[in-house]
Design a protein that fits this description.
Blueprint: E1 2-3, E2 17-18, H1 20-24, H2 31-44, H3 60-63, H4 91-112
Antiparallel strand pairs: 1-2
Helix pairs in contact: 2-4
């Protein structure tokens, strides 16, 4: 792990750290290439990904906006209910999303090679 710039601190003042390969990967893979690889992997698993901004807050604004690390999200559930008191999660949908993550990681790593 490598330290980020001193300005990268939590709300309590703790210095944040980053995994070195993630920080250095921004020079090796373009956001479009990473998103295309992730979308193709999801389609191969029977999902129907849409590449577009989410309509709710995520930490992607920090990882991508501040540190330039290509960032995308994939999660189960209905987006319109995300982070609300009406959020619900179908367990089978959650299992399918959980099982897709290793495939997503492999696809993005392959795109960075």
């Amino acid at each position: 792990m490598t330290e980020l710039e001193p300005k990268s601190r939590s709300s309590t003042g703790v210095k944040l750290k980053s995994i070195a390969w993630a920080r250095n990967s921004r020079a090796r893979v373009s956001p479009n290439r990473a998103a295309s690889a992730a979308a193709a992997a999801l389609r191969d698993l029977g999902h129907s990904p849409r590449v577009r901004p989410w309509t709710f807050a995520t930490d992607g604004g920090h990882t991508c906006g501040v540190h330039g690390i290509p960032t995308f999200g994939f999660a189960p559930g209905e987006e319109r209910f995300a982070h609300t008191n009406r959020e619900r999660l179908d367990l089978e949908e959650a299992r399918r999303a959980f099982d897709a993550h290793p495939v997503l990681i492999a696809a993005v790593r392959a795109a960075a090679s």
